[in-house]
Design brief:
The chain has 295 residues and is α+β, with helices and mostly antiparallel strands. It has ten helices and twelve strands. The strands form three sheets. A five-stranded antiparallel β-sheet has the order 4-3-7-6-5, sandwiched between helices. A five-stranded antiparallel β-sheet has the order 9-8-12-11-10, sandwiched between helices. A two-stranded antiparallel sheet has the order 1-2.
């Protein structure tokens, strides 16, 4: 209906027949339901917008009942797993979970029912049998239903695994190198030494890690010279040309090494560590000294 001023409004009309002095009449009661209608329309628009957002989401979205049976899915979920919407609806979480992750997924669903939300990584099984790694975030809806958002993190996981393998490979190179190697922070504190340096100096990893210059394996005589040289090199940028240095073992025995040092760059290609590789040249120095004495 419309008011005199042109404003539209809604009413609920309830008609009841009545008899009055042998005449039949109908009484119509009007109830203003404009606000209810406006609320219903706002809810309808909200639900339409929500469906648009869900259908447009790049993440796979799954809605299940309390038994883990899928009630609804969005297009991204279908694309993620290779099933049609009609195929997925009615399937269970167990049917699309990788067999090795099934126990973890079952525990996660129980946690979701108990706490109302979960977040975890797991693998799902596609229609063709291949596996996809996803990050799942799920929350409880009304009427014991649950909605889960799945993001494909397969590429990220592969990159993380490759990085772990690369780090392990690099560490193995350092650990198994026959040459002593040390890595220092810009404040001169020792970040790492390899087993070869432990064997040569007699100092353990625990004894050296975190130590700042002057280091325990530097002889007392040239310590100030070494510190000055280190600061100068680091200020100007360490070159990779080898140099000779006189060192001291934990036992007090002196020895000579040839040291090649270089900068290690980190984020934004900035120097954040310095690496030194030693070669024990003690025998060579002794031979040179004997040669000089002979002539």
């Amino acid at each position: 209906f419309f008011k005199k001023n042109g404003e539209m409004f809604w009413v609920g009309i309830y008609v009841k027949p009545v008899s009055l002095e042998k005449n039949q009449y109908h009484i119509a009661n009007w109830v203003d339901i404009t606000e209810r209608k406006q609320a219903e329309e706002a809810l309808r628009r909200s639900e339409a917008n929500l469906k648009t957002y869900i259908d447009s989401s790049p993440d796979g979205i799954f809605v299940t009942d309390n038994l883990g049976v899928y009630q609804d899915v969005n297009p991204s979920a279908c694309k993620l797993l290779g099933y049609s919407k009609e195929e997925l609806i009615g399937m269970t979480t167990e049917q699309i979970t990788a067999p090795d992750d099934l126990a973890d997924a079952t525990q996660g669903f129980q946690e979701l029912q108990a706490k109302g939300q979960i977040k975890k990584d797991l693998r799902l099984r596609r229609r063709d049998g291949s596996l996809v790694q996803v990050n799942l975030e799920a929350v409880e809806l009304s009427n014991r239903r649950y909605i889960g958002y799945c993001r494909d993190i397969t590429d990220r996981k592969k990159a993380e695994e490759a990085l772990i393998e690369a780090n392990e490979f690099n560490r193995n190179i350092l650990e198994k190198s026959p040459y002593p190697i040390s890595i220092q922070n810009p404040d001169t504190s020792i970040e790492y030494i390899n087993p070869a340096l432990e064997r040569l100096t007699g100092f353990s990893f625990v004894e050296l890690i975190g130590k700042k210059a002057p280091y325990p394996y530097w002889p007392e005589d040239p310590q100030q010279e070494y510190i000055g040289l280190m600061k100068e090199k680091w200020a100007q940028g360490i070159d990779r040309a080898p140099g000779e240095a006189f060192m001291r073992k934990k036992s007090g025995e002196r020895f000579w090494v040839e040291v090649t040092a270089g900068e290690m760059t980190g984020k934004r290609n900035q120097s954040d560590h310095f690496i030194s590789v030693w070669v024990d040249i003690t025998e060579r120095k002794k031979a040179e000294e004997q040669l000089k004495t002979a002539y």
